């Protein structure tokens, strides 16, 4: 975090800026995905070079594992380059591929979609938008195996709603949204 925010009553007056980053998980899954993809592809290559018969499922499996490894690596890279920055004049979001800056009065709507892995928040302006997640636990067999989203996600959401003066709450089947 760059510097601690100094809030006056109700978080209305930010006298500084604060940067938030999402939880980062272990890269063990990424390494396992790459390792299995490389083993299957190496096995396929060795069998082809030695003129051994290869089941058609081997190259398909190798390609699927390679695509999974690429997808996991991209997700981890995006997480490591993502931030939400609250400033006096507005909010900035970046994830390495997308950069958005919205002044507080440019925010027209905020949508909240509840999920098992933290709420998904969509911040929509006139010409730009971005999304982030509040903190959620990833569970398997009743145990927490990881965390995703922003630890201070609810605080970020509250700050966005207060600074952009979004108050009208509307329910819908999949979640709810705020707008002017």
What are the defining features of this structure?
alpha+beta, 2 domains, 5-stranded antiparallel beta sheet, 4-stranded antiparallel beta sheet, elongated, disordered N terminus
Q: State the helix count.
A: 3
* Radius of gyration, in angstroms, nearest whole number: 22 Å
> Structural class of the helix and strand makeup?
alpha+beta
Tell me the number of structural domains. 2
Shape: elongated
Tell me the fraction of residues in β-strands, as a range: 25-35%
What is the ordering of alpha helices and beta strands?
Answer: EHHEEEEEEEEHEE
- State the share of residues found in helices, binned by percent: 25-40%
Largest sheet: 5 strands, antiparallel
Q: Low-confidence spans: pLDDT under 50, at least 5 residues?
A: 1-15
| Strand arrangement in the largest pleated sheet | 7-6-5-11-10
* Distance between the first and last residues' Cα: 31 Å
Write a structural description.
- With 180 residues, the chain is α+β, with helices and mostly antiparallel strands.
- It folds into two domains: 28-78; 90-179.
- It is 32% helix and 31% strand.
- The chain is built from three helices and eleven strands, in the order E-H-H-E-E-E-E-E-E-E-E-H-E-E.
- The strands form three sheets. Strands 7-6-5-11-10 form a five-stranded antiparallel beta sheet, with helices on one face. Strands 1-2-3-4 form a four-stranded antiparallel beta sheet, with helices on one face. Strands 8-9 form a two-stranded antiparallel ribbon.
- Strand 5 and strand 6 (120-125) form a beta hairpin.
- Mean pLDDT is 89; it is low at 1-15.
């Amino acid at each position: 975090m760059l510097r601690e925010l100094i809030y006056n009553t109700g978080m209305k007056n930010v006298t500084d800026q604060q940067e938030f980053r999402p939880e980062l998980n272990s890269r063990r899954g990424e390494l396992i995905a790459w390792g299995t993809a490389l083993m299957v592809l190496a096995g396929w290559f060795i069998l082809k070079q030695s003129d051994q018969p290869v089941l058609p499922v081997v190259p398909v499996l190798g390609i699927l594992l390679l695509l999974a490894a690429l997808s996991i690596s991209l997700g981890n890279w995006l997480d490591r380059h993502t931030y939400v920055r609250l400033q006096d004049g507005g909010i900035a979001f970046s994830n390495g591929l997308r950069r958005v800056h919205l002044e507080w009065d440019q925010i027209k709507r905020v949508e909240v979609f509840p999920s098992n892995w933290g709420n998904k928040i969509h911040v929509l302006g006139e010409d730009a938008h971005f999304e982030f997640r509040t903190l959620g636990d990833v569970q398997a067999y009743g145990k927490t195996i990881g965390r995703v989203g922003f630890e201070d996600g609810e605080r970020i959401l509250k700050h966005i709603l207060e600074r952009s003066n979004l108050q009208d709450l509307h329910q819908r089947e999949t979640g709810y949204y705020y707008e002017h």
